[in-house]
Design a protein that fits this description.
Order of helices and strands: HEEEHEE
Radius of gyration: 13 Å
Helix content: 10-25%
CATH topology: HIT family, subunit A
Oligomer: single chain
Number of strands: 5
Structural class: alpha+beta
Number of domains: 1
């Protein structure tokens, strides 16, 4: 855990957050500044700064992030209407919190 990392604090339950899902490797919660009707974050408990800091040892975590994203899209009822899964990478790519996390957004009416 990084001492000043907000997502580490959330994952360790030092910051109160309602989890939509949790297992021994990941937590899922709603974004506090949503950009869509459904905007959730899928966050590994292991501190990884960004995509640029992934190693071969993190392959399973990345796969699990995506698979949990797919399942959360079903639970949030956006799997059929459509959704986006994405990572922001570094400040120029929109990353604000430097702890790897996958965004799931959707729920627009079209």
């Amino acid at each position: 855990m990084e001492n000043d990392c907000l997502f580490c604090k959330i994952a360790n339950k030092d910051v109160p957050t309602d989890f939509l899902y949790e297992n021994d490797r990941l937590v899922v919660f709603r974004d506090i500044n949503p950009h869509a009707p459904v905007h959730i974050l899928i966050v590994p408990k292991k501190h990884i700064r960004s995509i640029n800091n992934l190693t071969e040892a993190d392959n399973e975590i990345v796969s699990e992030l995506i698979m949990v994203g797919k399942e959360m899209a079903k639970k949030e009822s956006v799997s059929e209407s459509g959704y986006k899964l994405f990572f922001n990478v570094e400040r120029g790519g929109g990353q604000v919190i430097f702890h790897l996390h996958l965004h799931l957004i959707g729920g627009w009416k079209r």
